[in-house]
Amino acid sequence: DASLAEVNSFSPSMPISPSSMINQYKFEDEPELRDLFITVDDPESHITAIETFITYRVVTKTSRGEFDSSEYEVRRRYQDFLWLKSKLEEAHPTLIIPPLPEKFIMKGMVERFSDEFIETRRKALHKFLNRIADHPTLTFNEDFKIFLTAQAWELSSHKKQGPSLLSRMGQTVRAVASSVRGVKNRPEMFTEMNNYMETFSQKINVLDKIAHRIYKEEREYFNEMKEYGPIHTLWSASEENIADSLKGVASCVDKCCKATEKRMAGLSENLLPILHEYVLYSEILMGVLKRRDQIQGELDSKVDALANKKTEKDLFSEEIGKLEDKVECANNALKADWDRWKQNMQCDMRSAFTNVAENNLRYYEECLATWESFLASQAVDLHVEEDSEDRP
To answer: For residue range 37-75, what is the model confidence (pLDDT) as tens digits?
Structure first.
């Protein structure tokens, strides 16, 4: 993909997979193959003596045989989405689970529970569920099905069936021990993935910060411009000879102000969420690569133990065989998901930056046409005045 090679200079050593492009074309050209449609809408505030929280309506329509009905409607709060994400990570440690918005996604920019905050989160939660629905493996996860279909009390009961505290502590201890030991024979492909993600993370974080700074400066410019037009209108009341010109300037400023507001909406809806989503994706992918290394580290430690043990070789050999299968499954899952994620990322980035370019073109064309129209009207008025002065 030559166009992407120009835009994406993160790692020329990681070529775009032809198979991932084929998958994308199938997805785009055959949307009728989708059999699961999810909508997140209708946010609703709940105030109790202990807390205030928002629930969202999750509507699911499906033609899948494993569902008892073709349509479901449930209400979920943010904590339920967090539970689903943790269950997916637990069941599929080397798959790329879509990111959720942080608990305070717009902290410092808008107030919590404001309409803007709630709408931003609703869109992110909607995208989260649809990313899972479109994933070839995650979409068939049993916890995902329960999340979409169970009533609140049923979900609450199911959530209590999670692993015990001691089990979770044991997993954490093994993971830490494995990461400390390191990996001896990591395949080159995963080293390249790791290098790619380190560079990608750095670049996407910089882009995210710059985009937020541009949006902040645009908002400041917009707020000042809103005061600029009325000043010309007030001025026209005391300048009879140039009153029409001053009112014309005020009208142009007002039109440019509205165009600026539209451009800001384009940034906040099309660019900022995409960039921030991939900031979160970069963190998720680094975690996935670490978990893959932990699985391989466990295999390496068993192989070392077998080499140093003279007894129990049969038992160790059986454990090593199981771990080898586990590592192979983890590697294959990550390789397949990597191609898919990379293709989606490139498509999302291309779309986001194309939208920004088109919005900027429309903005400048609209502002230019506004001021050109004003100048043309002033030239006509000036010509009329000169003609009247020349008459005897």
So the answer is: 999 999 988 888 788 889 999 999 999 999 999 999 999
Cβ of 162: how many Cβ atoms within 10 Å? 14
Residues 198 and 179: their CA atoms lie apart, in Å, by 18
At residue 271, the pLDDT reads 93
How many Å apart are CA 97 and CA 280, to the nearest integer?
11
Domain total of the chain? 2
pLDDT at residue 385, as a whole number? 54
Q: Is residue 3 part of a domain?
A: no
Are both 143 and 236 inside the same structural domain?
no
Q: Of the candidates 187, 148, 124, which has an alpha carbon nearest to the alpha carbon of residue 37?
A: 148
Q: Which two tokens stand for residue 274?
A: 């995409």
* CA–CA distance, 146 with 229 (Å, rounded to integer): 55
Distance CA 292, CA 320 (A): 16
In a domain, 110, yes or no: yes
What CATH number does the domain containing 112 carry?
A: 3.30.1520.10
CA distance 130 to 138: 11
Q: Which two tokens stand for residue 134?
A: 């479109």
**pLDDT tens-digit map of 185-198:** 788 999 999 999 99
Segments forming the whole domain that contains residue 147:
33-156
SS (HEC) of the chain: CHHHHHHCCCCCCCCCCHHHHHHHHHHHHCHHHCCEEEEEEEEEEEECCCCEEEEEEEEEEECCCCCCCCEEEEEEEHHHHHHHHHHHHHHCCCCCCCCCCCCCCCCCCCCCCCHHHHHHHHHHHHHHHHHHHHCCCHHHCHHHHHHHHCCHHHHHHHHCCCCCHHHHHHHHHHHHHHHHHCCCCCCHHHHHHHHHHHHHHHHHHHHHHHHHHHHHHHHHHHHHHHHHHHHHHHHHCCCCCCHHHHHHHHHHHHHHHHHHHHHHHHHHHHHHHHHHHHHHHHHHHHHHHHHHHHHHHHHHHHHHHHHHCCCCHHHHHHHHHHHHHHHHHHHHHHHHHHHHHHHHHHHHHHHHHHHHHHHHHHHHHHHHHHHHHHHHHHHHHHHHHHHHHHCC
